[in-house]
Amino acid sequence: MSPDAAKSAPQGPPTPTPSARLASAHRPFARAVGMGLALLAAIAIIGPLISYRSDVSASRVQMQARLARESALYADALSLHVSLLQAELERVAQQPEVNLRDDTAAPEELLLRIAHQGSSLFTGGVALLDLQGQVIRSEPHGLFAANTALQRSPWFQRVLATRGSTVDVFSAGEETLAVAVPVRNEGVLLGLVQASHRLVPQLHDEGESLAVLGPTGNVLFPSSAPAWVRQGGMLERVQALAAGGEGEQWELAGTPVFAAANAVRGTPLWLLMIADQHAAIAPLRGRMRLQLLFIAVLQVATLLLFALSLRRIYRGFLAFEARVTQSEKLAALGTASSLIAHEVKNSLNGLGAAVSMLELGGDAATSVKTLRGQTNRLGHLARSLLAFGKPPVVHRVPVQLERVAQEAVDGLAALPERSEVQVTVHSAGPLRVQADPLMLVTAIDNLVRNAIEAAVGAKDLGRVSAPWVRVSAERDGRWGQVRVEDNAGGPPPGFEERLFEPFVTSKPKGIGLGLSMAHQALVDMGGKLAFERTAAGSCFTVRLELEP
After folding, report:
1. What is the average pLDDT across 530-542?
2. Model's pTM, two decimal places?
3. CA of 372: how far to CAs of 349, 375, 380, 448, in Å?
4. Backbone phi, then psi, for 96, in 5-degree steps?
5. What tens digit of pLDDT does each residue of 84-113 get?
6. Whose CB among 24, 127, 439, 450 lies 3.0–4.6 Å from 190's, allowing a Cys bridge?
7. Residue 522 and residue 392 in contact, taking contact as beta carbons nearer than 8 Å
8. Using CA atoms, how far apart are residues 268 and 167, in angstroms rounded to an integer?
9. What are the start and end residues of each CATH 3.30.565.10 domain in the chain?
10. In angstroms, rounded to a whole number, what is the distance separating the alpha carbons of residues 333 and 340?
11. What is the 8-class DSSP label of residue 225?
12. How is 447-489 classified by DSSP, letter by letter?
């Protein structure tokens, strides 16, 4: 295909610029830094969260233990208070003035008045009952309705049966506590206490509540108890909780709570304490929020400082990279200038020698051949420098790889060294690939030219007597390839690492752009250029993917 046809072919993907390649190289570094910062932030946040969960778990255990201790303490205090009530009534009952067989009631009324009004113990009142449960006297007057009989009350029956003091709920469903003691086998002295009045202490901790239940599950305290205290089965739950001895975690009305219960010794009463878990953990939650806020502020400040520091370091790195790049450019420019000057000098020497031969009347054919060879050499040098300074745009079109290889070899027929080297071309059949024809033929041209020049140089040095170059186009799986082999002995050992760098050459002539440009051209076309050292010399392989 002609160059004009190649120029009119559709344009392939643009070749990345050096700045784009530099940005692409910096992008993984930026991702790594971002991932590192994100990992640090995650660790900084996860640590307080784990600590918070541990604190909450420990706080639940501590709160449960504290509630169990407080419940036992309140139950013991209530038991002592009830014992005090019993002792006070027993003291009154043992007074000699209490005599139900005499005809006067004045002494009993005075004692009852003192027990009720002169003491803060029996706030509900006191009464003197006979053995049939009839109210003889009461303080205040009218405490019971006329002809009230209490002989069926459980506490009255228990006093008569045991002839000892007892404590019980006055009647089922009421919030009044009855304290009863016997009076010399003549009757019963009854003291009434309102459960909501000085019987149970008021709790001031937010989220905590206390309830006292009677033997039937009725609530003695508080008078305005929440609905969940009065629900069915609560007494059984409280009794089971008290039997366990340790507190538990309940859910009441959809709210998680700590619960502890104890039996009030000497009474049929049960004491239940409840603490709202949310209220108990609220201080921890507030402290956790402050910690997270502090960590967030600290992280933001750290990120800002790190970003500023990283920006400064990155700018320094870019400046250093620019200086290194500039130094490399200057070094490369110096090397290139030296190589170009050497190549031009050699060509000028050849031109001068040919002109001198013509002036002296020498062999005109030899002089013309020398002039043509040196001008071709200078033309190739100029084209190489122009192509290296401004890489062409890739135009990929379907081409026959074996034809392009043959075209490249035919184009070197006028090379001065061509006649000294046996060049053979072998094709294994049609190989259709997608490539830029002009770039591909130039790349193969450079490989074959280098092989011919290396073979002639090996002959001049006496290493080979019959130099040859073999060009073969063949199929290798889904790849089409062109192999360029020679018997020039190959480059010096260790030279392979810099083989495709620009302005690097092991030949006595040339500027070292051929292999570099061929390698870049193959990469731009989506192919490969590989080198291997053979027993006789070198082998370069051009590989392009075959069309399906």
Report:
1. 91
2. 0.48
3. 13, 5, 12, 20
4. -65, -20
5. 888 888 887 777 776 666 666 666 677 777
6. 127
7. no
8. 8
9. 394-545
10. 10
11. -
12. HHHHHHHHHHHHHHTTS-SS-EEEEEEEEETTEEEEEEEE-S-
Match 């002039």 to its residue by tokens. Answer: 371
Q: What is the reported pLDDT for 308? A: 84
How buried is 124 (Cβ within 10 angstroms: 0-12 exposed, 13-18 middle, 19+ buried)? Answer: buried
Which residue's structure tokens are 């003091």? Answer: 165
Distance CA 47, CA 61 (A): 21
Q: Is the pLDDT of residue 472 over 90?
A: yes
Q: Which of 217, 273, 271 is nearest to 76 (CA)?
A: 271
Residue 27 half-sphere exposure, CB side, CA atoms within 13 Å?
6
**Rounded to 5 degrees, what angle do the CA atoms 449, 454, 460 make?**
130
pLDDT at site 263: 92
Q: Are residues 521 and 544 in contact, defined by beta-carbon separation less than 8 angstroms? A: no
Identify whether the C-beta of residue 70 lies closer than 8 Å to the C-beta of residue 273: yes
- At 545, the amino acid letter reads E
pLDDT value at 12 more than 50: no
pLDDT over 50 (residue 3) = no
**Where along the chain do the CATH 3.30.450.20 domains lie?**
94-194
Q: In terms of DSSP bridges, do strands 135-139 and 125-130 run parallel, antiparallel, or are they unpaired? A: antiparallel
What does the block give as tokens for 378? 């200078």
Cβ atoms of residues 189 and 235 within 8 Å: no
Which residues lie across from 211 on neighbouring strands? 272
Tokens 């591909």 belong to which residue? Answer: 440
Q: Which helix (H) or strand (E) holds 25?
A: helix 18-93
For residue 72, give every residue at least 6 positions away whose Cβ sits within 8 Å of its Cβ, in sequence order, or none. Answer: 260, 262
pLDDT over 90 (residue 471): yes
For the chain, what's the residue count? Answer: 548
CATH class (in words) of the domain with range 94-194: alpha beta
Distance of CA 276 to the CA centre of its chain: 34
Q: Domain spanning 394-545: which superfamily?
A: Histidine kinase-like ATPase, C-terminal domain (3.30.565.10)
Q: At what angle do helices 364-389 and 277-359 cross, to 10 degrees?
A: 160
Strand pairing of 248-252 and 432-435? unpaired
Are the CB atoms for 507 and 415 separated by under 8 Å? Answer: no
For residues 278 and 289, what is the distance between their CA atoms, to the nearest angstrom?
15
3-state secondary structure string, 313-338? HHHHHHHHHHHHHHHHHHHHHHHHHH
Q: Which residue type sits at 436?
A: D
